[in-house]
Here is the input.
Amino acid sequence: MDYLVTAADGKEYGPVTIDQLRDWVGQDRIRPDTTLKNFHTGQMMLASAVPGLFGPSAPPPVTDWSQPPQVYPRNYQQVARPVDSGVGVFIGVLIRSGLGILLFFALHGIGLIVTGYGLFYAIRSMSRGHKFGIASVVVASLAFIAVLIGWIIRLQSGEGL
Here is the structure.
């Protein structure tokens, strides 16, 4: 089983195996009150809850959260990328939505496809928990609805494809 280790600086390191965790316990990089996250399920836990990590003589976990956690040594290597805030995704949705509206006027059917892709991209970003996920869905939905209404008007006026 693999784990992500949350350091004192708030960054996640890993994924690491149970053997690597044991090595880090021996180097005093991980203490019983260190927060771990199961890499596969996302379940958060204290390191003291991992069976066999500290042995029977481990000190009880610190429950006083008013004190900051320990600082990790400077040679503690970061191997995981920082969590994406979603700004790039939001900008991508804005570009796809605007491009879809412009292409509706120039190439007709391509505009509907591009705005549909923008909506798909926005829904995917929201499901991944990006900071601007909901705003992305709103923008992409409005663009898709605008192009769809444009198609309805175009078909009713007899312009067709």
